[in-house]
C-alpha cells in the first residue's frame, strides 16, 4: 500500500450525513475552453469545480473554492433526510447533473439549485442506495432492488438479506446478450449479480461486503470488474461475467474497521489509478470521525490533486500535498496563485469567535434564569443523534461497538447481563472505571468511559464467551446543558463467531433445514452443546414438544486441539522472546560489548525489542481468549457426555500456561472422566 503525507484543509461543516451523500462535480471541458482556461495534460487527472453534499436534515449544499475561501453556490430548504446522492447525465456527456434520493422519491437539482426533475417511486420502503446510468435508475431499500428505465418500473428483486450497496455495469459492451446487470453487496456475505428481475448467481466471500465500486470507475478493461470493501476492513476485486463470477484477489487493509466508501484516482502520479478507501474509524489520516463520502479531483487549485472527504458529523475537507493558505510554488506557467492577507483573516476570525462566545454566555445565563423562575417556563430538553453500530468483528475476535455524536461525548456507561471483557481500542483515549455490580439488579458488568475533550467518536471492543447471551445496555451522555443521555440496547448472541469460527482455529457450523427437522453439523463439541442448550431453553419457553438426538465423534476433540495449536504456540513464543529480551537487556547494562558475541537471533531481538515487548503487553497468554476456548471445550464435552468437568479446569489452566505441548494437551483430553 502507498503512504503519502497529505495536508488537511477544512472547507465547511454541513449537517450530519449518510454514506455516499457527497459528490465532486466534474468540469465541463467545453465551458472551460469557452472561458479560455487550459485543460490538464494528464488524461487521468480531472478538473473539478464544485462539491455537492446532501445532509440528514434534507438540505442539499453545493460549494466551490475560490482564492482559498469556501463559497456557497446554492443551498436548498430542509426536508426528509437525504439517503443518497448521485451524478448523472446523458451518456457520452459530462456527468454533472445532481440527483438525490429521500424517502421513496428522487429529485434532480440543476447547477443553480433549482429542481428540474421529481420522480415519486412505488417503493414500499425508503430508498437507501442509488445508482444512475443514463435514463436507468436503480434504487435499493433495505432488502428490495428496483430498476426504473426512463421512470418506468422495469425490474424488481426481493432479497432475503439486507442490501448494503449497489453498482451497475455501465457500458452496453459489458452486457452483450445479457440483460440489465446490477451487483449487490448483501449481509449474508455474498455479492449477488442481478440480471433483469432475477439473481443470476452469488459469489460467496469470507466477510460481509459493505461497499462496492466499479474498478477504475468503469469496470476495468472488460467492464466487468467490481471492487468491494467489507465490514472487517478487507478490500477485494471480483469479476462478474455472465453465468458465474469469482474473486480475483482480496487483501487486508490498515485496520479492521468497515470500509464505508472508495474511489479510484491517479493520486500518486502513476499511469494507473490508485484505489483510495475511507473507513468508519476515520482512517484517511488526520480524521477521527466516520467517513461517509470520498472523491478525488482538483477543487482548490488547477494544478494540485486532492482527496475530498466528508464525515458523519458534516465536516467537508480536502487532503493534498500542498497546504492551501500557505505560500504556494509557481505553476508550470511561472505564475503564483492569488494570496489573501492572512493576518487580516485571522483577526476577523478572532473577532467572530469573541462575538459568538459573548452570545453563548448571554444565552446560557438567560436560560439558567428562566429555569430558576419555574412557573410556566419549562426546561428545554435538547435532542441529539447517536450514530451507532454493534457487530462481531472477525479480525479482533470480539464485538465492536462504535458510538458517534455531532457534539462532544462526556461519558459512556455500560451495563451487561453477561460477564464480558472490555478491550482497549487503538484510537480510544477515554479513561475507563469499573463499578462493583453487586446490588445493581442482576447486571454482571458496570463500567464508565470518560472521554477526553472534543471527543465525538468512541470505539469499544467487547469480548464475550461463545455460549453466553443477554443484553448490553449503553448510556451515552454528551457535553450539553442540561445534562441528559440516550440509552441503547444491544443483544449479545451465543455462537457469534459461526459459520466459520475465527476464535478457535476455524471450526465450522453447518445447518440443514427440512420439513419438521433441523440438523446441526460441527467439528466443535462446544458449538453443538451451546446449540442444544439454547434450543432446549426455547422449546421449554414456548412449551413445544420436540425430540432431540446427538451423535458425538471423539476424533473431533483432537481435531479442535490441532486447530488451536498455532495460536497458543504463537503466544508461548511471544512470552519466550519477552523473557529473552529482559535477560539480554540486563546483560547489556553490565556489558557494553555484548553485540560482539551475541548470535544473530538475539541481535535481532534487541533491535526489535520495542515491538516484541508491546506485543507481549497486548497479548498476555494468561489473559488471552484462547484459554477460555480450551476451557469451553473441556466443559461442553463433559456436558454432552453427562458429567461435570469443571473440577479439571485448574489442572488444564496450569498445563496450558506452564507445560504446554500439543501432545500433552491431547493426553489431558484423552481421559474420559475426571
TrEMBL record:
Sorted alphabetically, which keywords does the UniProt record give?
Coiled coil
Q: Which residues form the BBS7 platform domain?
A: 500-548
Ranges for domain BBS7 GAE come to 382-490
Mention any one GO cellular component term assigned to this protein in its UniProt record. ciliary basal body
| InterPro entries named in the record | BBS7_GAE_dom, BBS7_hairpin, BBS7_pf_dom, Beta-prop_BBS7
Q: Which residues form a coiled coil?
A: 346-373
What biological processes does GO assign it?
cilium assembly; intracellular protein localization
A Pfam family per the record: BBS7_pf
UniProt source species: Mesorhabditis spiculigera
The record places domain BBS7 beta-propeller at 50-320
Q: What is this protein called?
A: Bardet-Biedl syndrome 7 protein
Domain BBS7 helical hairpin, which positions?
A: 554-669
Amino acid at each position: 500500500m502507498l503512504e503519502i503525507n497529505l495536508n488537511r484543509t477544512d472547507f465547511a461543516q454541513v449537517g450530519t450525513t449518510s454514506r455516499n451523500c457527497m459528490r465532486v462535480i466534474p468540469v465541463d471541458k467545453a465551458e472551460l475552453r469557452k472561458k479560455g482556461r487550459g485543460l490538464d495534460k494528464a488524461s487521468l487527472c480531472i478538473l473539478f469545480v464544485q462539491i455537492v453534499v446532501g445532509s440528514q436534515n434534507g438540505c442539499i449544499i453545493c460549494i466551490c473554492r475560490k482564492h482559498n475561501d469556501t463559497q456557497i453556490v446554492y443551498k436548498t430548504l430542509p426536508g426528509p433526510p437525504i439517503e443518497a446522492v448521485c451524478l448523472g447525465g446523458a451518456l457520452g456527456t459530462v456527468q454533472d447533473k445532481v440527483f438525490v434520493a429521500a424517502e421513496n422519491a428522487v429529485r434532480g437539482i440543476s447547477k443553480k439549485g433549482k429542481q428540474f426533475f421529481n420522480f415519486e417511486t412505488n417503493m414500499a420502503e425508503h430508498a437507501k442506495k442509488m445508482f444512475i446510468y443514463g435514463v436507468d435508475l436503480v434504487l435499493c431499500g433495505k432488502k428490495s432492488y428496483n430498476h426504473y428505465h426512463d421512470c418506468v418500473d422495469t425490474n424488481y428483486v426481493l432479497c432475503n438479506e439486507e442490501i448494503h450497496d449497489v453498482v451497475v455495469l455501465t457500458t452496453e459492451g459489458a452486457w452483450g446478450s445479457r440483460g440489465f446487470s446490477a451487483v449487490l453487496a448483501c449481509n449474508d456475505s455474498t455479492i449477488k449479480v442481478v440480471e433483469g428481475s432475477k439473481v443470476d448467481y452469488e459469489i460467496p466471500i469470507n466477510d460481509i461486503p459493505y461497499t462496492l465500486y466499479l474498478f477504475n470507475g468503469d469496470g476495468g478493461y472488460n467492464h466487468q470488474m467490481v471492487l468491494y470493501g467489507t465490514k472487517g476492513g478487507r478490500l477485494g476485486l471480483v469479476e462478474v461475467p455472465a453465468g458465474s463470477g469469482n474473486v480475483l484477489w482480496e487483501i487486508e487493509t490498515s485496520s479492521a474497521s468497515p470500509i464505508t466508501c472508495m474511489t479510484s484516482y491517479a493520486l500518486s502520479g502513476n499511469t494507473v489509478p490508485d484505489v483510495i478507501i475511507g473507513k468508519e474509524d476515520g482512517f484517511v489520516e488526520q480524521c477521527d470521525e466516520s467517513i461517509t463520502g470520498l472523491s478525488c479531483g482538483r477543487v482548490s487549485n488547477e494544478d494540485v490533486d486532492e482527496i475530498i472527504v466528508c464525515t458523519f458529523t458534516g465536516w467537508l475537507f480536502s487532503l493534498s500535498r500542498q497546504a492551501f493558505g500557505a505560500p504556494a510554488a509557481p505553476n508550470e506557467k511561472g505564475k503564483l496563485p492569488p494570496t489573501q492577507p492572512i493576518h487580516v483573516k485571522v483577526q476577523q476570525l478572532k473577532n467572530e469567535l469573541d462575538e459568538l462566545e459573548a452570545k453563548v454566555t448571554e444565552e446560557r445565563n438567560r436560560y439558567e434564569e428562566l429555569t430558576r423562575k419555574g412557573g410556566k417556563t419549562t426546561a428545554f430538553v435538547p435532542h441529539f443523534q447517536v450514530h451507532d453500530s454493534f457487530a462481531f468483528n472477525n479480525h479482533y475476535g470480539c464485538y465492536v461497538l462504535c458510538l458517534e455524536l455531532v457534539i462532544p461525548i462526556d461519558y459512556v456507561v455500560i451495563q451487561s447481563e453477561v460477564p464480558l471483557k472490555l478491550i482497549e481500542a487503538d484510537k480510544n483515549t477515554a479513561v475507563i472505571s469499573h463499578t462493583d455490580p453487586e446490588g445493581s439488579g442482576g447486571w454482571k458488568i458496570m463500567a464508565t468511559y470518560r472521554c477526553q475533550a472534543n471527543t465525538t467518536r468512541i470505539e469499544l471492543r467487547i469480548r464475550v464467551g461463545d455460549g453466553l447471551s443477554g443484553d448490553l445496555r449503553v448510556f451515552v451522555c454528551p457535553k450539553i446543558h442540561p445534562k441528559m443521555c440516550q440509552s441503547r440496547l444491544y443483544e449479545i448472541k451465543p455462537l457469534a463467531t459461526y459459520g466459520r469460527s475465527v476464535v478457535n482455529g476455524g471450526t465450522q457450523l453447518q445447518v440443514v433445514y427440512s420439513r419438521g427437522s433441523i440438523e446441526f453439523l460441527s467439528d466443535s463439541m462446544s458449538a453443538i452443546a451451546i446449540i442444544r442448550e439454547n434450543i432446549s431453553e426455547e422449546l421449554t419457553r414456548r412449551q413445544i414438544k420436540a425430540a432431540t438426538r446427538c451423535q458425538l465423534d471423539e476424533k473431533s476433540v483432537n481435531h479442535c486441539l490441532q486447530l488451536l495449536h498455532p495460536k497458543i504456540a504463537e503466544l508461548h513464543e511471544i512470552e519466550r522472546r519477552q523473557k529473552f529480551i529482559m535477560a539480554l537487556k540486563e546483560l547489556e547494562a553490565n556489558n557494553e560489548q555484548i553485540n560482539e558475541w551475541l548470535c544473530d537471533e538475539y541481535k535481532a531481538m534487541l533491535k526489535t525489542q520495542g515491538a516484541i515487548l508491546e506485543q507481549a503487553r497486548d497479548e498476555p497468554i494468561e489473559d488471552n481468549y484462547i484459554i477460555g476456548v480450551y476451557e469451553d471445550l473441556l466443559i461442553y464435552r463433559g456436558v454432552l457426555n453427562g458429567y461435570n468437568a469443571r473440577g479439571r479446569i485448574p489442572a488444564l489452566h496450569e498445563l496450558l500456561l506452564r507445560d504446554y505441548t500439543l501432545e500433552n494437551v491431547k493426553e489431558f483430553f484423552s481421559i474420559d472422566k475426571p
